[in-house]
Specification:
Length: 289
């Protein structure tokens, strides 16, 4: 496998770098330790007389600080897998451990706290509340976490400044472009300094230039903070450019696990970890996702 030196370029966004996130509360995972572990994970449900095997026996490990892309066609199970890791859905069988928490055994209240403090999520559709300003949208996780009001204003201002939106604090989502809305959603996802960032088609509603800006910012958070990133995408080119590892799903199963090599045209070297076995099966390495 080819190797190359890690670049130290800082991909700033709107003049703001992820290295300025030191004032946000929370903890980052220790790089190298297992952050996500699934074992024979299944999510089945019925649609009429048909049994849908959305996730069907997936076993994998993701280490702290990895940037992983889940790829596959529509219906392959990648979004269902992300929902299980996020604690938004419960498995039919099998195990999903995140930061040594067995999500299947957590109560609804414990899952809510897990999503608040451990996980940050970014969606294709932004999911901002239309009746609220950007500042109020970004403040929501702090209110749920019962952060003191006297501290919230500064944290929100800093979060929006980091993504280049301080001047837009009092605007509503309808007054912003798609890229600005996604930046606001990213600020909200990271306001409580989660250990794990889950992104479901984060560039799906954006033009290519704006999508690149968003992904550069996500990559910088991954590099600067050691934040574990799991991204769902159907764009292989996007995954090759940004992810250290590509996991391919089809019909709810893991069919290929590609990691740790220098990809042509990529400015993100992979991480070769010989202690982590590569899953066998499927021949999707050369196919378009």
């Amino acid at each position: 496998m080819a190797t190359c030196r890690q670049r130290t370029r800082c991909a700033c966004f709107g003049g703001i770098s992820a290295s300025r996130m030191t004032s946000v509360p929370g903890n980052s995972p220790e790089n190298g330790k297992i952050a996500i572990h699934t074992e024979a994970l299944c999510r089945h449900y019925r649609m009429g007389e048909t049994l849908i095997r959305a996730v069907d026996g997936i076993s994998l490990q993701v280490r702290g600080g990895e940037f992983v892309a889940l790829l596959g066609s529509s219906g392959s199970g990648k979004s269902s897998m992300l929902n299980l890791i996020a604690g938004l859905d419960r498995p039919t069988s099998g195990t999903v451990l995140v930061q040594e928490r067995d999500l299947a055994r957590l109560s609804r209240e414990e899952l809510a706290k897990y999503r608040l403090h451990v996980v940050g999520m970014v969606f294709q559709s932004f999911n901002l509340i239309a009746s609220m300003t950007l500042a109020e949208n970004v403040e929501l996780p702090l209110r749920f976490a019962e952060v003191e009001r006297s501290k919230r204003e500064n944290l929100v201002r800093e979060a929006l400044e980091r993504v280049g939106l301080r001047a837009r604090m009092n605007h509503r989502p309808s007054e912003l472009s798609g890229g600005e809305q996604q930046r606001a959603a990213l600020a909200r996802a990271l306001i409580n300094r989660p250990q794990l960032l889950l992104a479901d088609e984060p560039t799906g509603n954006l033009d290519s230039h704006t999508g690149t800006e968003i992904m550069d910012l996500v990559r910088e958070f991954n590099r600067q903070l050691g934040m574990t990133v799991v991204m769902v995408t159907h764009e292989r080119a996007l995954a090759e450019r940004y992810a250290q590892r590509m996991i391919f799903l089809a019909d709810g199963k893991l069919v290929d696990d590609v990691r740790g090599y220098e990809r042509p045209g990529s400015d993100r070297p992979g991480v070769d970890r010989p202690d982590m076995p590569v899953a066998s099966g499927g021949g999707l390495k050369g196919e378009s996702a």
